[in-house]
Amino acid sequence: MIKKKLNSISLSSWVFLILLVVLAYIPIVMMINISFRSNGQIYTSFWALPSPWIWENYTKAFNEIAINIFNSVVVCSIATIGVTLLSSLSGFVFSRLIFPGKEIIYYLILSLMMIPAILTLIPLFIQVSSYGLLNNWLALLLPWISGGQVFGIILCRTFLSALPNELFECARIDGASEFRIYLRLVLPLLMPVLITLAVVNLVGNYNDFVWPLLAINNHSSQMVTVALSQLGVENGTTNYGTRMAGYVLSTIPLILVFIFGMKYYISGITSGAVKG
Length: 276
Description:
membrane; mainly alpha; globular; MetI-like; transmembrane; MetI-like_sf; two-stranded antiparallel sheet
């Protein structure tokens, strides 16, 4: 009797989970479906399959946003490298070194997480404008690197603080400098956490829309999120097939990131949970 109840619960759980997966993938399937259709097909039979399949939507979308996808990949990759490098350095300093005012400085950094990013948008725009960095990739890189470090420092410091102090003392007794300890000991231990941090920052920066819209005005230097908002507009009408094709193409870099980094991403989340 108990076994039958357990089997029924297990079956109902599987049915519920499958239903959730189906509901989650319906928008993705419809996006791909619409990307092969014209406006006429969409308006007359929204749920039908493409007839005929319009592959030219992908050609038009690629020609329009290929440079923007490249821009987003390059800028977000540079920003992610900067965030992971500086976060690991700062996390090591705050967790293992002793200097006056360390806790005060750390809690000041921690308090930045309580400030909504939208509140700093206008002051940040005025600051970047006064530096003459508008319409320059530095206008994106500097805020993304500095802003992304807040979460990264907390994550790295929490992870390193949970490690036994004897590990670092042994390295110092063997004559290793602090920088050598960072390179040979801290970085290998932090690698799963840094990959998790890199994925989170890369996805967040890649999907950012408001700040690139304000900071960059040149289409050839613009990020893909802003370029997508203007894709497929001709003579005051929007070609939704071309726009959806652009959405599909723009997700390819993120899909590749998750394919190659998912194992390390999950490992980093697990490590953070266990160490916490």
